[in-house]
Amino acid sequence: MTTVERVRGELTNSAQPVDLSGDQARAERVAAARRHRRQLIDLAIRVASLAIALTLWEVAAWNVDPVLFTSPTKVAVAAYHMVLSGELWTYLWPSLVVLAIGFAFAVVLGIGIGVLLARFWVLDVALTVYITFLYSIPSVALVPLIVLWAGFDTTAKVIILFLFAFFPMVINTYQGVKSVDPKLLEVGRAFRCSERQLWWNIVLPASLPFIVTGLRLALGRGLIGMVLADLYTAISGIGYLIVRTASTYQVDKMFVPIVTARPPRRDAHGAAAPRREIRGALDRGVARRLGLRGRAPRTKTGNVACRRAIDRSVSSRWRQAPSRSPMRLRAARRRKTAA
To answer: How confident is the model at residue 279 (pLDDT cuts 50, 70, 90)?
Structure first.
């Protein structure tokens, strides 16, 4: 066998298709095992960090006057007795009612106003300056004025909580609608979608990651507003429990509502992680709606392969779009005029 024939045979063998399904499955198993191992390591580090912090707190409480400071064991015992006697729930229930009402108003009005501002440029120009001005004012500075106008009842608490939770919702919704990919809107109009179909199938799903981020931020700020409203009114609620236990030097009981009313824990990477996951799920859903075969691989950059496949499908389907679309009619008239 000559050298030419041997090289030709090697090229022929290399051109044959190679089955990579086994390697792909092995790589997926290795990646899953690596992720599981990393999760276990993260959990062990967090548990060790919490144990060290509680131990230092316990040791520090030994050398401080118990009237001014307390230990985590005493806080745990106080929490057990307050939960068992129903004292904690008695003060927590009014605050939860205020949180539910104010947060519901903030979510509904925030999403609605954010969508309207992003959709109609007249409202955007007219009202954005007021939203920016009110958001730049510290909400705490408005609390005495709200109490003066609305009194010390539940209405004042709801208004305070609404002010704390409203602006994250409206700003994130506005940014989410504004950041919708123009290519998706162009494809929707090319397929002669109505305005309602554009909003329901493209705009709202694409802005969902921003809305979810606004919900998380609004809930955290709403909890802060809930405690602040109780502190200023000092009639009922978990804020009143904090004030009462602090004024009677029951420091162990004071820490219980403080820990109970903490804001939700944010992800280690902030709001980027849930937004990335939701964005990836939406990309895969859009790919399935456009008729793509298979599933795109998940990547940390927002399913780049899936979005490229969507773009390719958009371009191919645009070439197959009916000739009645306005853009294709104008292109046909230009070609006829040039001919």
So the answer is: low
Please name the residue that has the structure tokens 């608490």.
157
What DSSP designation does 269 have? T
| 229-236: Cβ within 8 A, 24+ apart | 229/98, 229/143, 229/156, 229/157, 229/160, 229/161, 230/95, 230/157, 232/143, 232/144, 232/147, 232/160, 233/147, 233/152, 233/156, 233/157, 235/152, 236/91, 236/94
Cβ-in-10-Å burial (0-12, 13-18, 19+) of 72 comes to: middle
Element (H, E) at 96: helix 87-119
Can you spell out the DSSP letters for 121-175?
Answer: HHHHHHHHHHHHHHHHS-HHHHHHHHHHHHTTSHHHHHHHHHHHHHHHHHHHHHH
pLDDT above 70 covers a percentage of the chain that reads: 71
Written in H, E and C, the secondary structure of 272-329 is: HHHHHHHHHHHHHHHHHHCCCCCCCCCCCCCCHHHHHHHHHHHHHHHHCCCCCCHHHH
Residue 217 parent element (H or E)? helix 204-233
CA distance 224 to 261: 8
In angstroms, rounded to a whole number, what is the distance separating the alpha carbons of residues 108 and 113?
9
Tokens standing for residue 216 = 């998380």
d(CA 274, CA 255): 31
pLDDT at 9: 59
DSSP letters, 248-260, are TT-HHHHHHHHHH
CATH architecture label of 72-265? Orthogonal Bundle (1.10)
Residue 223, exposed/middle/buried by CB under 10 A (0-12, 13-18, 19+)? buried
- List the domain boundaries for the chain: 28-63, 72-265, 269-325
Query: What value does the mean pLDDT take over residues 66-85?
Result: 87
Banded model confidence at residue 169, pLDDT cuts 50, 70, 90 = very high
What does each C-alpha distance from 100 to 104, 158, 169, 213 come to in angstroms? 6, 9, 15, 18
Tokens 């000559």, residue?
2
